């Protein structure tokens, strides 16, 4: 128990540690999760409470089992999925960069490629953050995954949409000068934002889809919503796990609040000048050796700082807003500590001095680079 297996970052291109993990938790549960996002898991074995749980591969049957001290708890694969005779094949199990646990075989004598014989996830868009922050996952056949950005957002990397998106315009829905005419609701049919205790702002019963749409529009703390089965669920930022997955999301209606300026920017997002600028920025990131997957949320904070709108990140938290100056200082210190150039990171002594206020925090290099 406590054993972990990680995905790679990007197929056969990047074998560094990815954002997905299979873990045998100390409570006995086997969990697949997007661990970089403090995800509690999108699949689990429902074996919590069992002792000395393991995942084993039986060489005689080429099957995987979840076992404990008493024996087999649950088979992961079945005999229908594994070719015979067993000894004629090589076998391997991996977690893909799409967050799926899979078993593959390769014929020792006549094989020329690995063949997929089993996978844990059969509906790929249920995998958390599969299209990144502010991304939208669709899979008409539950095989191929298509990632694009939600309305009002653009891809961090046009060549790899699964890395997530950033807002075209930074807005504070709760700004005192904001009016209803500054925003619009984009409706996405047969779509959903997967429920999560941290993402859900509130929910209420209503048979009227228009009432749900109005509730999203009227609540400045709400960024999106979903109407399904006479229930309206309002969502907070950041928006994760937006999806259209057949048949799971049929008859659901998703709403997302977008600024009018963001809509205008969306129409211009494919212009050559803008594409060149985004690509240039991403090349700078790559040259510095930064992992884009690890920087998605950081990039969001950087965009807010650059736009002078850091307050929008915590606009829903009145306690933090009451001491916003302290939050701003700690955010800046945090950005210093994760600077992509290790030589510019402050020592622990200086960090303590910045926290105590005896040393000026200053503008972190990443923020300064974005502004310039």
Automatic annotation (TrEMBL):
The keyword Thylakoid does not apply. Transmembrane segments: none annotated. Residues 88-155 form the S-locus glycoprotein domain. It holds the Pfam family S_locus_glycop. Gene3D superfamilies: 2.90.10.30, Transferase(Phosphotransferase) domain 1. SUPFAM superfamilies: alpha-D-mannose-specific plant lectins (SSF51110). Keywords: Disulfide bond, Signal. InterPro entries: Bulb-type_lectin_dom_sf (IPR036426), G-type_lectin_kinases/EP1-like (IPR051343), S_locus_glycoprot_dom (IPR000858). It comes from the Eukaryota. GO terms for biological process: recognition of pollen. This is S-locus glycoprotein domain-containing protein. It comes from Acer yangbiense.
């Amino acid at each position: 128990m406590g054993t972990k297996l990680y995905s790679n970052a990007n197929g056969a291109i990047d074998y560094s540690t990815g954002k997905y993990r299979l873990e045998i938790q100390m409570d006995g549960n086997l969990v697949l999760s997007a661990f970089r996002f403090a995800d509690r898991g999108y699949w689990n074995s429902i074996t919590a409470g069992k002792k000395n749980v393991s995942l084993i591969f039986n060489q005689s049957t080429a099957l995987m089992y979840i076992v404990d001290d008493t024996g087999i708890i649950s088979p992961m694969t079945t005999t229908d999925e594994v070719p015979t005779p067993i000894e004629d094949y090589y076998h391997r199990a991996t977690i893909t960069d799409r967050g799926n646990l899979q078993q593959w075989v390769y014929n020792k004598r006549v094989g020329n490629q690995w063949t997929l014989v089993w996978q844990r996830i059969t509906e790929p868009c249920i995998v958390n953050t599969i299209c990144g922050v502010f991304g939208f996952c669709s899979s008409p056949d539950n095989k191929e995954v298509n990632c694009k950005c939600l309305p009002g957002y653009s891809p961090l990397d046009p060549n790899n949409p699964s890395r997530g998106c950033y807002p075209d315009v930074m807005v504070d829905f709760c700004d005192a000068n904001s009016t209803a005419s500054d925003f619009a609701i984009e409706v996405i049919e047969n779509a959903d934002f997967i429920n999560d205790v941290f993402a859900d702002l509130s929910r209420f019963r209503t048979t009227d889809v228009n009432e749900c749409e109005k509730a999203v529009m009227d609540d400045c703390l709400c960024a999106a919503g979903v109407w399904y089965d006479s229930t309206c669920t309002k969502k907070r930022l950041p928006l994760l796990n937006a999806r259209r997955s057949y048949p799971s999301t049929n008859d659901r209606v998703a709403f997302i609040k977008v600024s009018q300026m963001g809509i205008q920017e969306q129409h211009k997002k494919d212009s050559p000048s803008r594409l060149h600028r985004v690509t240039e920025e991403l090349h700078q990131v790559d040259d510095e050796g930064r992992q884009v997957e690890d920087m998605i949320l950081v990039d969001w904070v950087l965009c807010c700082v650059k736009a002078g709108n850091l307050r929008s990140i915590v606009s829903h938290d009145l306690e933090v807003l009451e001491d916003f100056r302290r939050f701003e200082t700690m955010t800046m210190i945090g950005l210093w500590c994760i600077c992509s150039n290790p030589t510019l990171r402050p020592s622990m002594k200086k960090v303590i001095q910045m926290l105590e206020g005896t040393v000026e925090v200053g503008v972190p290099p990443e923020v300064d680079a974005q502004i310039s």
